[in-house]
Specification:
alpha/beta, Aspartate Aminotransferase, domain 1, 2 domains, 7-stranded mixed β-sheet, 4-stranded antiparallel β-sheet, 14 strands, 38% helix, binds pyridoxal-5'-phosphate
């Protein structure tokens, strides 16, 4: 009994960690180093001398996603902005977004002089609920931005059906979704346009970077131009046709990303397998409910592995404290967003820069119960690089949770 208590002492109280392994990210070797060094040595560090490397990455990424086109840019916020503007949104148009996502999904809507309208998420997937989307549609709605949250596909059949019936554009925010699939199609390749981020935490990274993929030649031409200061593809350097900006990726980022892309399939497969295994392992723990799979996602890339935490099975321990204990045990985890997006000061204390949002829109009245509960009580994230571990690591994550449960029950 005494022996068991010693080995069971929580790491936060000075006991041994349940997980001692480190999970490195990013993952690279000499191939990445050489690719970047080659650019440094050849001295062609920027446009217009070096289009080849950037175009090669765009072509490789489009081929990977199965789309006709890909337009790279500086990050996954600008990629959303390019897609929105190219889709033809006008000042005051409404764009439906989920409240459980990174701020960029909604703030780029404001940057495009449109009005973000929040529709709640589903309790079992944390993805946009198509029924809530339909209730949020008005005559001013122009677009929907489904976020494939954590790398799990949204219910795209239902969302595309709404888009057809109400004549809306669909921009997939696939910042979490590199390599994941919905009914055999890559995320990002399903709606009018799909937006990706290559920021350092994402499943495919070049430090920073972004991409929009599409099959629509008109969207492609316009996004290409907006990304390149309004120039036309193949046009003259000092001829400008659209109110764009310099949002270009650099060749150093492009070659780094091209090397990283070669690793993506194997990594995605590993995260998906580990996620399925962890689902099995956690199913047996009272008070822990992994998000549900089975709404059409054929490959989940687990940018985040999310489970729902029920404090009542852990002696009332708050989610925040539980996550502290779990992190101390060596599981790379996080409590997630503290609030649904509409609670951010950007929306609650709207300032003069949000002039495109009509006075009558009052975000203090927005309340999405599922997102509220996810933020406050339920959602626990295990980070993607930890999902690149082994099956034994997944067993250790489950054991860390059981260890905390035993401790709070003693
Ligand atoms: C990271 C992220 C973005 C924005 O990407 P950046 O490259 O950081 O600008 C957009 N949407 C979601 C859901 C994200 O997680």
């Amino acid at each position: 009994m005494i022996q068991e208590r010693i080995t069971d002492r929580l790491a936060i109280e000075g006991g041994d960690k349940a997980v001692t392994k480190q999970f490195p990210w990013p993952i690279y070797d000499e191939r990445e180093v050489e690719a970047v060094a080659d650019i440094i040595r050849n001295g062609k560090w920027g446009n217009p001398d070096c289009l080849g490397e950037v175009e090669a990455f765009e072509q490789a990424f489009a081929a990977y996603c199965g789309t006709r086109y890909a337009v790279s840019c500086v990050n996954g916020s600008v990629s959303l902005r390019l897609a929105l503007i190219a889709c033809g949104v006008r000042p005051g148009d409404e764009v439906i977004v989920p409240p459980y996502t990174f701020i960029a999904t909604a703030s780029t809507v404001i940057e495009a002089n449109c009005v973000p309208v929040f529709a709640d998420i589903e309790p079992d997937t944390y993805n946009l609920d198509p029924e809530a989307v339909e209730r949020a549609i008005t005559p001013r709605t122009r677009a929907i931005i489904p976020v494939h949250f954590a790398g799990q596909a949204c219910r795209m059949d239902a969302i595309l059906d709404l888009a057809r019936r109400y004549n809306l554009r669909v921009i997939e925010d696939a910042a979490h979704g590199h390599g994941a699939e919905y009914r055999g199609r890559k995320l990002g390749a399903i709606g009018d346009a799909g937006s990706f981020s290559f920021q350092s935490s994402k499943n495919l990274t070049g430090g920073e970077g972004g991409m929009v993929v599409t099959n629509d030649p008109d969207l492609y031409r316009l996004m290409h131009s907006l990304r390149n200061v309004g120039r036309l593809e193949g046009g003259q350097w000092y001829d400008h046709f659209n109110p764009g900006c310099n949002y270009r990726l650099t060749p150093m980022q492009a070659v780094l990303l091209s090397e990283q892309l070669k690793r993506l399939d194997e990594q995605t497969h590993r995260r998906n397998e580990n996620g399925l295994y962890l689902n099995e392992l956690l199913a047996g723990i009272e008070g822990i409910t992994p998000l549900t799979r089975g709404h059409g996602e054929t490959v989940h890339c687990y940018h985040l592995y999310i489970f729902r935490y029920d404090a009542s099975a852990f002696g009332g321990l708050s989610k925040t404290r539980f996550v502290e204990l779990l992190a101390a045990e060596g599981v790379p985890c996080f409590r997630g967003y503290p609030h649904p997006l509409y609670r951010q000061p950007l929306f609650q204390n709207r300032n003069w820069m949000c002039y495109a949002i009509p006075e009558m829109v009052d975000y203090t009245e927005v309340y999405c119960p599922v997102a509220e509960k996810a933020c406050r009580d339920e959602a626990v994230w295990i980070l993607q690089h930890a999902m690149l571990g082994t099956r034994t690591d997944m067993e250790a994550f489950a054991e860390a949770i059981r260890k905390i449960q035993r401790a709070v029950r003693r």
